[in-house]
Design a protein that fits this description.
This is MFS transporter. There is one protein chain. 82% of the residues lie in helices and 0% in strands. The protein contains 18 helices and no strands. Helix 7 packs antiparallel against helix 12.
Length: 428
């Protein structure tokens, strides 16, 4: 009995096999973790500096408007580029560009009168560099680990990003409040420099011989491929439906202050989802035993919506924090299995372009969801906006999975794309 219990608990532990077995995975993981931690420090410092210089909430929000076009255009182009060039060189080149941009941000803080226009320019340029870089980073993951280790590699990558999501804003807040934005941007700069130096140590992963040169035609080919693969299309649509209909973050200030009467605990609402996601990552060892991964994505996204909806009914803030944490855990499970499907089934020569499309999906869904939540809250109430979003999310995911039935039936053991990639990796 005790041995059986120990065996079951062992299956929950996060699987460290990719970390032990792959030098380049360790480089990607450490570099990405440091890069993300520094980026989250800057994520706090940038809006703080903008607000201090302008006194305008609109000026802070306008940074989002400035970055949307670069995200769309260069996210797609960066994906096409990642399928043609050596990905290590693209990571290093964009990293150097980000070092220059970050150094400009630090220099601007040292001026007697920091320039607001320069902050927007740097924000737009950084969005360009990030959009060019991220598809290459994500497309490399399946090349540096074994095919069967991909679920564990995705879980480890997600875990480190969640640590950064928790620690980065906390560190940024302390730096901004105690020593100023110059130090916060300097920490971000140091993180980018360190990550770029690590990327330079990656092995050479050349594109396949039949890789397509970056062009509008190549980008269109990636979009056509995604739409023809109903299982891939479902991963994008299910996530976008979930995020668009049940993204509650923009309502947290009003929810904590006006509804729950606990403004001092607002920070815990922001942290709850990340804590839940981290708990899911730390107990993700079971994921490698799941083969119906599409089904897992559907159920997890429905769980996200249901948990958000119940949190909207909370009689007190601790109830809300608990269910927002549960929502974060469900979202992490959805992210895990969507990533596994992408990394185990997409051909290497298409992976960059599909990573670019994926980046757009998980960026635009939350942006639209925040606008939807704010509009519904203004027209009705904050509770109505949160609860209705959760209910609509569950209904929308059911409708989407019913429309794309292939996704519910997806089985990694028999899917033709997964089988082909598994055989290619075994032969290579």
């Amino acid at each position: 009995m005790a041995a059986s219990l120990r065996s079951r608990l062992a299956r929950l532990r996060v699987d460290l096999t990719p970390w032990r077995g792959s030098r380049d995975f360790r480089i990607l993981l450490v570099a990405g973790s440091v890069f993300f931690l520094g980026g989250m420090v800057g994520y706090v410092a940038l809006p703080y500096q903008l607000y201090q210089l302008t006194g305008s909430n609109f000026a802070v929000g306008a940074m989002g408007l400035v970055t949307i076009a670069p995200l769309v255009v260069f996210g797609l182009y960066g994906g096409a580029l990642a399928d043609h060039v050596q990905r290590r060189k693209l990571l290093v080149g964009t990293g150097i560009a980000q070092v220059v941009i970050s150094a400009l941000m630090v220099t601007n803080t040292l001026l007697a009168h920091p320039q607001v226009w320069l902050i927007y320019v740097c924000g737009a340029l950084n969005a360009v560099a990030s959009s060019l870089q991220r598809p290459s980073r994500e497309a490399l993951l399946p090349r540096v680990v074994k095919h069967e280790e991909i679920p564990a590699a995705v879980a480890l990558s997600s875990l480190t990003s969640q640590i950064g999501q928790l620690a980065g804003p906390a560190l940024g807040g302390v730096l901004v409040g105690s020593v100023g934005v110059t130090w916060a941007f300097s920490v971000e700069l140091a993180g980018i420099v360190f990550a770029t130096l690590l990327y330079a140590r990656l092995g050479s992963y050349r594109s396949r011989e039949h890789a397509t040169a970056p062009s509008l035609r190549a980008i269109g080919g990636g979009i056509v491929y995604a739409f023809r693969r109903k299982d891939l299309l479902a991963t994008y649509l299910v996530d976008m439906v979930g995020m668009f209909l049940a993204m509650p973050i923009v309502l947290f200030p009003a929810f904590a202050t006006d509804v729950l009467k606990e403004p001092k605990l607002l920070g815990l609402l922001y942290s709850a989802e990340a804590i839940g996601a981290m708990c899911a990552s730390l107990t993700s060892g079971w994921a490698k035993h799941v083969h119906h991964q599409g089904r897992a994505v559907v159920l997890a996204t429905m769980g996200w919506g249901a948990a958000v909806g119940i949190a909207g009914l909370a009689p007190n803030i601790w109830f809300a924090i608990g269910f927002f944490a549960l929502a974060g855990a469900c979202d992490m499970v959805s992210v895990l299995f969507r990533s596994v499907i992408w990394n185990q089934t997409i051909p290497d020569e298409m992976r960059g372009r599909l990573a670019g499309i994926e980046m757009l999906g998980y960026s635009l869904g939350p942006l639209g969801g925040q606008a939807r939540s704010g509009l519904v809250a203004d027209l009705t109430t904050v509770r109505t906006a949160i609860v209705s979003g959760g209910v609509l999310c569950v209904a929308g995911v059911i409708a989407t999975s019913a429309w794309l039935r292939e996704f519910w039936r997806y089985d990694a053991r028999t899917d033709e794309h997964a089988v082909r990639e598994r055989e290619l990796r075994a032969a290579g």
